[in-house]
Design brief:
binds flavin mononucleotide, alpha+beta, 153 residues, Alpha-Beta Plaits, single chain
Length: 153
């Protein structure tokens, strides 16, 4: 295997999925997901960000290729979401979400307006492409860095 695709090379995987959680329980479940994720991801050098918006999850997982794929396969089995679709996956030159083993951002309407401007179009999770998804998550990262209290790493 070449160095670039080797299992120790940094990879980033972004996927979108639909929430399968009763709306009143979303906050509680997302808190539980983040708690477990921090514990697990710390052990396998995974960092990332989970965007929670409008019935959707959009998550970036970055770390050694093998660890990122193993985490994704486990996450896929989780009944709290469905219809997961990989938006992008491949080697990355550096971590974009290195501040957090995992961190969730639940979007408010104010955030939504900011993101629409930053991403310069409506967010359609069904058709979102890799570049757009990464831009979106990086925009969320800067909002979270400025306003977020919960540091996870
Ligand atoms: C949207 C979503 C994102 C998740 N992200 C992670 C994650 O980044 N890391 C992780 O270990 N588990 C994550 N989970 C939870 C896993 O599906 C699973 O419940 C957990 O890894 C089980 O951990 P345990 O075997 O240590 O109890 C996520 C679940 C959902 C629904």
């Amino acid at each position: 295997m070449s160095e670039i695709s080797g299992s120790r090379t940094l990879h980033r995987l972004i996927y979108a999925s639909r929430q399968a959680i009763e709306p009143v329980r979303v906050n509680e479940e997302v808190d539980a997901i983040v708690r477990i994720s921090i514990r697990n991801n710390r052990q396998t050098a995974i960092t990332g960000l989970l965007l929670v918006h409008d019935g959707w999850f959009l998550q970036a997982l970055e770390g050694p290729a093998e660890a990122a794929m193993t985490a994704y396969r486990r996450i896929l089995e989780d009944p709290r979401h469905k219809e997961a679709r990989v938006v992008s996956a491949g080697p990355a030159s550096s971590r974009a979400f290195g501040d957090w083993n995992m961190c969730a951002r639940r979007m408010s309407h104010a955030d939504d307006a900011i993101l629409r401007t930053l991403a310069s179009r409506e967010i359609d999770f069904l058709t979102l492409g890799g570049d757009h998804a990464l831009r979106l998550l990086k925009a969320v990262r800067s909002i979270q860095t400025r306003t977020g209290l919960a540091r996870s790493a």
